[in-house]
């Protein structure tokens, strides 16, 4: 049985990954070694085929014993440990949730419903480094894979609506604290004046965002009752890094001969979990909407095509109804007024599942 080391298993992506291993009975397929710095030496939680002691995630010697390492620990860990491990001569497979290795020439970005062939070819030819893609990139490709596969896309603009949890567990909690802050203000305002009007309440809420005790250490502003149209650092192009990743990562996964332009604005919104995206898709020819729908629907088993109908959209195309599932609902599919070669679509996906943990899990299974 192959030895699989898991690093970052207590974080948000790591916990989701461990859950998926358990639900799918994956732990029966390999021997699991949990790594941590802070819990090093303690008893590991009970897992089928799991080593009983937690090992040291900073120990090159202990990591070197593994056939495969799956890490959800983040880019700083990858940058610190991966080069040392490779330098020590370790030739195991490294599967990483972080972005640190994604654009390295000898690393493959994994999303097997889209690039299973490339992953298989890489494994056969000795590729050892695999990285999951950026969450919105993977979710876009899961949603629009059928159109990319038919080479119908000239360019795409993706406007994202990204959940608080994409910025980490603490950010998710900060959003809830902001909601509580507003809830308290609302209650107190109603107690002081039962007949207070909506516009007065709006003023109170908006002013309260400026108060010293308003919780905004993580976001640097109000996400609750507002939104934040910037994610990650600034690139020279003027894009945020989250926006920059869309084109470079998607084209690497698709192995495009000619780069398909993909650009848009990435926005943090007050959803707790699941990233949504509104797409403007420029096709390279006019295509009947029925054909577009069929290509989207048939591209993978997780896509759920939602009819362009108000009630169906509200029932099936939201973060709330997608959270915790592997579904990729795609809806609002229609031609745009710019012409029949323009298609509008909207999609939602759980950024912790298809956007992070699931492609890693499935790549690990391909290695066994
Ligand atoms: N970069 C993503 C975000 C994380 O900030 O939402 C992936 O969930």
Structural descriptors:
binds L-homoserine, seven-stranded parallel β-sheet, 21% strand, 12 helices, Dihydrodipicolinate Reductase, domain 2, Rossmann fold, 368 residues, single chain, alpha/beta, seven-stranded mixed β-sheet
What is this structure, in a nutshell?
With 368 residues, the protein is of the alpha/beta class.
Question: What does this molecule look like?
Answer:
- The protein is of the alpha/beta class and 368 residues long.
- The protein has two domains: 3-133 and 356-367, Rossmann fold; 137-163 and 230-264 and 271-355, Dihydrodipicolinate Reductase, domain 2 (2-Layer Sandwich).
- The protein is built from twelve helices and 14 strands.
- It starts with a strand and ends with a helix.
- 40% of the residues are buried.
- The model has no long low-confidence stretch (mean pLDDT 98).
